[in-house]
Amino acid sequence: MSQANNTPAANPSAAQPPAAPARKPGAPATIVVIGALQQEVNLIREELADASARTDAMGEVVLGTYANAQIAATVAGMGTVNAAAATQHMIDVYAPQAVIFSGIAGGLNPALHIADVVVGRTLRYTDTDNALIAESAPGLEEFSSTPALVSLAEQALVARGYEQIPPAASNAAEGPSAYLAGLDKKSPSYGGRQDAESPAAPAAPEPQRFLTGCVATGNRFVTGAELRGRALEQTRGDCAEMEGAAIAHVCARNGVDCLVLRAISDNCDEAYDAFSARRFDIAEYARSASALVLDIISRMA
What is the mean pLDDT of residues 234-263? Predict the structure, then answer.
């Protein structure tokens, strides 16, 4: 697996990333997992064989084996600097073949509802002069998850009952208008809304969905029409968060495969304090995210 589909370098003379560390024949792969929440890492630890923990510059790092892979799992903290520092540290110390990052994000695409998942095919910075960023290795203005890992994530999500939103509905592609227009407004995919003539009819349960699309990464919590509109204009992203592009950036620089997954927690329409106070089911998110990550790891074996 390789970072084969990243945007061509803005600076062709920029140094190419090194090859990922070689693995001895028959040796298990090493996979770094970076979670958004300690609860998620704790749940992963429960499934590891020979689980242990150590404390270093990252704080606590959980170690163990799963599906014939060596796992090192930790929490990065919020923001691009924390995410980049954590990723480089984990690569330097554990020499992984892949980094998997999962977390939560605000939705920018109306086709996505709360608890839906975005698989980050493309990751772009907001509020950044990307041409200047690309003057340094690896010479890229945008970043991506490794295609083979994207495929495994899609397989795992489908197997877990998620409904796939067509990739063309991504803001980075044709957009969601045609997809939404083609839905039956009574259908679960549209949100289970009912016509006024049948107010007593119970709403059908809304299925969980996923979209393979674009993740917008910046150092501000995106809320309100102005910041939301700016993030869309700069990235055409499907969700907004604060770490993903930095993690993919560091992985590209080191020649390490990566995968970025984001669950939608809000619609970029409330302040951080209000979001923190809202009854978002963190425990359920942590269970779903940890189970999905482990499913993907088992498919990598």
Answer: 94
